[in-house]
């Protein structure tokens, strides 16, 4: 058990949060959510002891071991991969190294031998003889190949390093597990394995994540960091979000009687609980929901941006077509080759590839930014495409950086009136004096919201979106997801957000430099179909990752 007693944190006059009283118990997984800058990662650092609170304290049940997912990707570069994983259980690792040092010392004394015998006993109690086997199994499950297990960590690529750090945190079945954005840069297969692992985990897990699907799969509770307070709610992220939305609507509807509102809420909880029971990962969440006290529910004070793309014109019969579209790098190698497909009205295609550069390059070609390619493509005459790139730096250059938000957005709007621009920015959560901020001081998330505003003002009937959720907080991601889902036009997009992929795409195209797969399916159907799994294996059988 981990208990937070009257914790507060203050930097100068700024109070990050105050009077936090929470109890985290074994068998539950707590998802920490909050706007960017609200203090989620800082809260985890307080729980781990890395940062001392200004007031209050953290209590951990005596004898319980805590593991923290390391954010330093270079801290273990000089260790072998297996040693780096076992170091997740520091006490076990220290015992292992101390006794090995005694055995390797030709001048060891009788006293040293007695010490080694003591260490052997403690080593056995900690199941030390299975340490390498357990570490190797974790690594293999996470997709780190066996021939890398004895390599130095510094010899691994970035994605495999992340998997090693994840294995380190999971190693040895810690009593308390703290993880900050564990799914960042993980592939779909590894993320699914981690979901299953944590769903079956019997100890205490506290995790910060922007991945709504991940939070839904593993969390029994949501911990909301909002306006200086931290509150705990029963259920996963979707339950928290939909409950909050329902309660907000009820509060706004003053004509409804209290009894009617209560009945409506109970019906919603029962329905959600019944749906949860169908999922393997949701057994503990269902138990928590069954014990839920209605009085514990409160509407969130969160604000969501307004994201809605409204086409100015109806598209004709010809939407988009490409034929043998290929892209070579300066080295002469193909990034992708012979991509051919035709889009039909209403299709929203998720573009996939193991190499993010493939998708970005494809989008830059069809948006007209890259003229160096092979093959051909064509949009229909009625199509008004809008491209929102992953890298938006060219829209915030040195000259543009001196513009305030009002003037920056005005240059992309047919309607120049100040009240219109101010109102539009207000719906994107730029209110009051914020509209006069220089765009050069905007955060990454604020710039993405600006790009969404620019895109909406063009009234497109065809969207091209390259990782649109990057830098966004959960509120903006949720609003974007709804906007993409409700968009009546065509769309080509890529994203690492499972829920966006699964709720928006009705067609999946996966490309590499060895071929392509084209399927009229949802993302879930695509990823879990056994035949498609074989096709994907063939697609990447001779695949070699290339970089520009």
What's this model, at a glance?
With 548 residues, the chain is α/β, with parallel strands linked by helices. It contains 20 helices and 18 strands.
Helices and strands in order, then pairings?
Layout: E1 2-11, E2 14-24, E3 29-34, H1 40-48, E4 55-60, E5 66-68, H2 81-86, H3 90-103, H4 110-125, H5 131-141, H6 158-170, E6 176-180, H7 188-199, E7 204-208, H8 212-218, E8 221-226, E9 229-234, H9 237-252, H10 258-276, H11 283-290, E10 320-328, E11 334-343, E12 348-352, H12 356-366, E13 374-379, E14 385-388, H13 398-401, H14 405-410, H15 418-427, H16 444-457, E15 462-466, H17 474-486, E16 490-494, H18 498-504, E17 507-512, E18 515-519, H19 523-528, H20 530-539
Parallel strand pairs: 3-7, 3-8, 5-6, 6-7, 12-16, 12-17, 14-15, 15-16
Antiparallel strand pairs: 1-2, 1-4, 8-9, 10-11, 10-13, 17-18
Helix pairs in contact: 3-4, 9-10, 10-11
Question: Would you write up a description of this structure?
Answer:
The strands form 4 sheets. A 6-stranded mixed β-sheet has the order 5-6-7-3-8-9, with helices on both faces. A 6-stranded mixed β-sheet has the order 14-15-16-12-17-18, with helices on both faces. It has a 3-stranded antiparallel β-sheet with strand order 2-1-4, with no helix packed on it. It is globular, with a radius of gyration of 26 Å. It contains 20 helices and 18 strands. Among the domains are: 74-107 and 126-170, no CATH class; 237-296; 320-393 and 457-539, Rossmann fold; 397-441, no CATH class. A hairpin with a 5-residue loop joins strand 10 and strand 11. The two termini are 49 Å apart. It is α/β, with parallel strands linked by helices and 548 residues long. The protein has helices at 40-48, 81-86, 90-103, 110-125, 131-141, 158-170, 188-199, 212-218, 237-252, 258-276, 283-290, 356-366, 398-401, 405-410, 418-427, 444-457, 474-486, 498-504, 523-528, 530-539, and strands spanning 2-11, 14-24, 29-34, 55-60, 66-68, 176-180, 204-208, 221-226, 229-234, 320-328, 334-343, 348-352, 374-379, 385-388, 462-466, 490-494, 507-512, 515-519.
